[in-house]
Design a protein that fits this description.
The complex is a heterodimer.
Chain A: H1 2-29, H2 35-40, H3 46-56, H4 62-71, H5 95-130, H6 135-149, H7 152-166, H8 181-186, H9 191-217, H10 220-227, H11 232-244, H12 246-260, H13 264-269, H14 275-284, H15 288-316
Chain B: H1 2-15, E1 45-50, H2 66-76, E2 81-82, E3 96-97, E4 105-106, E5 112-116, H3 134-145, H4 163-167, E6 177-181, E7 184-188, H5 196-199, E8 239-241, E9 262-263, E10 267-272, E11 290-295, H6 299-308, E12 313-314, H7 322-330, E13 338-351, H8 361-370, H9 373-380, E14 386-388, H10 419-430, E15 450-455, H11 458-472, E16 478-483, H12 485-493, E17 501-502, E18 507-509, H13 516-523, H14 543-548, H15 560-566, H16 571-589, E19 592-603, E20 608-609, E21 613-614, E22 619-620, E23 626-627
Amino acid sequence: MGRYLIRRMLFFVLVLFVVSVVTFIIFVKLPSVDPAIRAAGRHPSPRLLATIRHKFGLDRPLYVQYWNFAKGLIPLPGLFLNKEVYFSYQNHVPVSEDIYSRLPVTITLTVGAAIIWLLIGIPIGVVSAIKPRTAIDRAGMIFALFGVSAPVFWLALLALYIFWFKLGIAPSSGIPPGESIWVSILKGRFVLPWFTLALSTAAFYSRMVRGNLMEAMSEDYIRTARAKGLSERRVIFKHGLRSALTPVVTMFGMDVAFLLGGAVVTETVFQLPGIGQYAWTAITVNDFPPIMGVTVLGALFIVVANLLVDIVYAFLDPRVRYA
Amino acid sequence: MRRYAKVLVLAVVLAMGAVACGGGGGGGGNATSSPSGAKPQKGGTLNIAQLGDVTAAFDPQKEYYQVSFAYYQCCLLRTLLSYNGQDSAHDGTTLFPDLATGMPEVSSDNLTWTFHLKQGIHYAPPMQDVEITAPDIIRALYREATPSVAAGYGFYYNVIQGFSDYANGKAKTISGLSAPDDFTLVVKLTEPAGDLGYRFALPATAPIPPSPSDPKAVLGVATGHDDDYGRFLVASGPYMFEGSENLDFSVAASQQKQVAGYVPNKSYSLVRNPSWDPSTDDLRPAYVDAMQVQIGGDESVLDQKVEAGEGDLVFDTSAPEPEFIQKFQTTPDLKDQIFIDPTQGNYYATMNLGTPPFDDIHVRKAVNYAIDKDGFRRIGGGPATAEIAGHFVPDSMLNNLLKDYNPYATPNDQGADTPDGLNLAKQEMAQSKYDHNGDGVCDDPVCKNVLTVANNTKTAQAQASLIQQNLQKIGITLDIKSFTQSAAYGKVFDPKNHIAFTTGWAGWLKDYPDAYTFFFPVMYGPNILDQYNTNYSMVGATPEQMKKYGYSVTQVPSMDAQIEKCFPLTGDARVQCWADADKYLMENVVPIIPLEFSNNITIVSSRITNWTYSAYNDSASLDYLAIAQ
């Protein structure tokens, strides 16, 4: 296990390196407008341009520029997202300040949505699998088809229109200035974003659970379990579902990690000041340091989630062992 | 430029998929319109939504953006001179004394301007005991010139003696700025600048208090805040950021805590400035007690919140989503909640004088006749969104001297889409050296595949296609390359790219209500830059510049003499001079096809009373808006 973890950590470093280099090349080497010129305003003097380039570190050789950014990705105090390099070229606000203040919103959104999509997706998948080709199964699969097909931005707008604008039973978008995240949760400001974000994932999960469970239920060990006289409930939940959920765990880890990196559309439509909204704002103005910070943070979440999933795998499936 | 760029992005948003809006609505009109018809009352909180934050975290020396200018003018900062926050019909573009006791005294040679400051005006907490004085204005200008601050528009002050020397490290002081006493500011210029008053109404000149811990510090309380003074802003207007009283300038800059009421990219919370004395301020009624601003979100949802009354207005767009324009204009209950006002901004197509066939004035005139401006506007949203332009500078900036002037008028402004319009275009083209057989259709190879940059939004693409079809009728075919707004600007900013034509997505918005801010950046030869060049047509470029940028055409027409003639003038003579320059531009240089003078369209919630449009800010006057009690 120890050797496995070391291997994964090395892989993790490699992934971060690749992601950071690609991001750096895209946004620093190939920007549509020189960030120094953008920051200098109109009619800049050469001296002013030189000052800004120096301030942004753009007068350094490319490898030095990259290294300065790369250092900021090392998760150690004083280095991680350090303010000397990781500040917005637009408004000079440190990236860490923005990310840390926005992370609670994104975590709240992600965790809430994840709970909902598990609570919706898995039961529908199970019921569909144990009652195939029945009305329940068909309804479940129609739900899945709808959820998978409907774009999130459309769902978000539709949810707001119906539940807030027309019926008035849900709050509108946004978190008023000064309102804490707990108060927002209690006031139900996350309910529509949670369900919107959860719907498409729940639909996908229900399809996956249905397929996996149906396959598992035709396995020999299920027949053996039944022959031993176990109740059908025990057969399904103890033996069938446990096996069927293994790939779901993989997906779950990836999905949660992906959303922690920012649910751009949901956060934008619902006016939630999270990481996704921050990333989107930065991309639209080609503000490199926040883009780099968010991208690598997203990659970090995904790599860590993968690692956790692999560990959980070993507990879920006795056949999986890491030597 | 970023001020323009962002506004224009928003204006393109305005145009996207817009519906034809046949006028009507609440219309413009100032300080008279209110859904409830009630008299404005003090109190309440204005709930404002914005799609994005300001561009430089409210740093007054750096911000160069219409929205931040509006917050400063209405609410946060007072300047020596300012505006009354109304539309141009109600003197909204006229300068009034603000911190100054009256208009400045100007010497007979126009080189010395003297401002006298009102006494007894104090800063917002925590500097409530500090009186605003002339050295505070000087401090702001030093900050504008300080290289490490990287300020946004120092070029407006290069005309002050010693300003550029200080900015370039050649002098230790700005010799042209002095304060003979605490309430007198003397400004000496290197050359006359008739519009200096406007420049002293820009937020960069708003006073910065001295540092309590180091009264001799050149930048006062802004010392150590080269990159983030906006988050430590000491207000002088009727409002301040909530929590300003907790700012502590007695400790080192690195230990100071930012103001709580401004969270970049998230929210602003403005509350009343207890130091503000309305008896010293004739320009700002300041009706509401507070303003809450939420940043981000989907525009249609934000418009919906306004309709539902959960938000009062969306502040940083030039128009709501098209379906909301239509809904508010056609629904009886909502009709009083939509307001259409002219901005001092325009849209135009550009022709590069250095790239054939546009080196021939007859071709340029023929193109002016050929384009269907009415169709262009229809695609962009119809008459509600803009007036059709016949010349370069918006009419309200020229006191309507050129209101009916349109040297390339065609029936219904439909250009080559009408037989008469096409005929006019062909007559002009027939005089061109590129129409060899004189049939009014360009038959020279230079008219084929003319390098053109377009914006890639759906609306801009449709407008580009319309122009393409129009020009085809006179033998010009366009090779259109489409980009995002930001990338498209990136292409045309570089004179080495030889972009021959742009399709009307580019525009201009004033910095202050003087046509200098149109002619100087866009049509003035000495302002052509290697990068970030906003003179896309290369008007007034020297032969050396043209060679340097690789053009085969090296002689291009200039506007420099006409523009320079206006520099020292003031008052009506100045406006007349700019109007003459505009006519000269349209008849003798013809580097552009003026398309639209754009409108601002705002929807407000039903509780808003006293709608007022600020011609200076090109947006709602937030200090005039009131809440129905």
